Amino acid sequence: MIVAFSLTPSAGDDTGGVHDAVAEAVRIVRESGLPNETNAMFTNVEGEWDEVMAVVKRAVDAVAAVSPRVGLVLKADIRPGYTGELTAKVRRLEDALDEQ
């Protein structure tokens, strides 16, 4: 499965920034060993249901440690039997665009 998720702390630092809390969540994802990527809006992570959800929970817990409230947006592509889709889906799209 691939999960795209975004965390939003309700409170920021002294300047209103939330990047330190979000960076800690991304660090947890990257250290998980699961395939992942981060863009301007979401962090995507691929793996089996239990391992992906455990990483999301650890990321939420890290942000909750510095913020009294955490918003979580999560979208999942659940496709049993498929792996490597984090890059394969994009590759298929690019191939389709090249054919046009």
TrEMBL record:
Domain Thiamine-binding protein intervals: 3-93
UniProt xrefs under InterPro entries: MTH1187/YkoF-like (IPR029756), Thiamine_BP (IPR002767), UPF0045_domain (IPR051614)
Any single Pfam family the record assigns to this protein: Thiamine_BP
Top-level taxon in the UniProt lineage: Bacteria
GO cellular component assignments: cytosol
Family listed: Belongs to the UPF0045 family.
Name of the featured protein: Thiamine-binding protein
